[in-house]
Amino acid sequence: MSELSVNETVVHQTKLSARGRKAIIAGSIGNTVEWVDWSVYTTFSSVFAHHFFPAGNEIASLLGALAIFAVGFVMRPVGAAVLGAYADRHGRKKGLVLTIGMMAGASLVIGLIPDFGTIGVLAPAILFLARLAQGFSAGGEFGSSSAFLIESAAPRRRAFAGSWQQVSVGAGILIASGLGALITSTLPKDAVDAWGWRAAFIVCALLGVVGLWLRSSVEETDSFAKAKAAAEETVAQSARPARGAVFTMFVKHPGATLRVFGVTIAGTLLYYMWASYMPTYAAVSTHIPLSQALTANFIGVLIFLVLLPFAGLLSDKIGRKPTMTAFAGGFLVFAWPAFHFLNGSFPTLLVIQVIGMVFLLGYSANCAVIMAEQFPAAIRATGIGLPYALAVALFGGTAPYITTWLTSSGLGGWVWLYCAIAAAIGVVVYLTMPETKGKELD
Questions:
Q1: 285, 407 in Cβ contact below 8 A?
Q2: Does the CA dihedral 186-188-193-196 come out positive or negative?
């Protein structure tokens, strides 16, 4: 091969096309809106909890709201299976349009639910159902959006493209945290309690309309189009219906399925602790004002978002394994000092937030691309989404509840060990998994 041909190949493998750039922009903005809706629940959980449960015990009300938060994660594997299979059969674009519509609609419902004093047990019941709908939507979102971004990327820029999936998730959390900081710092406490938190949910629902429009404007990926044509040809030749994506994933790709689950354990638990729940945890356990805790979270997530695409480029250069191992190893060392020195001081909380978010770069830059590189296009959205959602339901969704329960039961000194064990599992998984950098995708 001539030097010119080699250079052309390298450019092709590293340069994003105009279509690829549009896919990243549209996919990321739509995903951001989706995750603003999802994250605003934890941002305001300590504010609205008593509206949906009997009065008299604030910790019990918060635990009730967090239990519903955790139950929402139960629907994520269901959503991943159903909506992932839908995206594998009908297209990434249609799947993404469906998920954002469901998420925004549920946010609107939460913002308008009358409180417990007005409608009694119907209040937590409606909150429960709305959160189930959001969990169902979020379950389908990750697999579909990850497949869409990775399939739209240049071969040697897949981690960079995939990092934007997590940039958009982080941006959603950032906006939710910023919205929380703005509302709690500018409105009187009574106004925040009475209607400020409701306004946040309604604003999130309106943002969903923007995301819906953006997702309706993008083109389908070539990988899906080829996989669909191949599946139709196979069915025509065999006169037998194609196997479902879930069946194919478990039966033909059990190793890849288990690997995606293992990759997610440490990432989801530590991500939800640092990027989403840390402000509420710090406010409850150290009594730092929620507005200060949210501000520290905002700054930490902002730094994380700025650095994340560069972490993706680093993964494309040196590989998935070293960057993932650095994340888990860092938290294994950092877990004890992080919780030992958490004392209600804003500067201390800010340092803890920033260090944790920097370590999380190793996971978030890689998770979408590693998972996408495990499966063929015909089952990619399901293969990414379902085992990921199962791990998130078991380890991410329960993290806020478990840490709050430990703290309220006088066992707060064990929270660091809970995080360290997850990090240790991550170190083992990442060191033993195969390197997928440079693997060809169909």
A1: yes
A2: negative
